């Protein structure tokens, strides 16, 4: 699940770092963490870059949820 993966990734970065790097609101990040929302297209590349993974790796997490 994407929210679980994000929680793992959050252990390596602070919430503030993520919000600043990605340009999302704190509430949006919380919704991603809680599984109430998945990141939109404009957030995929900044998130992937921040965590040093490819957008494909991040999208695999998103597609697995839709599965």
UniProtKB/TrEMBL annotation:
GO MF entries: DNA binding
Domain HTH cro/C1-type: 20-58
SUPFAM superfamilies on file: lambda repressor-like DNA-binding domains
Gene3D superfamilies reported in the protein's UniProt record: lambda repressor-like DNA-binding domains
Domain of life: Bacteria
Protein name: HTH cro/C1-type domain-containing protein
Alphabetized InterPro entries for the sequence: Cro/C1-type_HTH, Lambda_DNA-bd_dom_sf
């Amino acid at each position: 699940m994407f929210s679980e993966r994000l929680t793992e990734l959050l252990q390596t970065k602070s919430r503030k770092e993520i919000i600043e790097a990605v340009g999302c609101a704190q509430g949006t990040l919380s919704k991603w963490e809680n599984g109430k929302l998945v990141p939109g297209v404009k957030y995929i590349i900044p998130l992937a870059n921040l965590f040093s993974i490819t957008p494909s790796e991040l999208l695999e997490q998103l597609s697995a949820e839709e599965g």
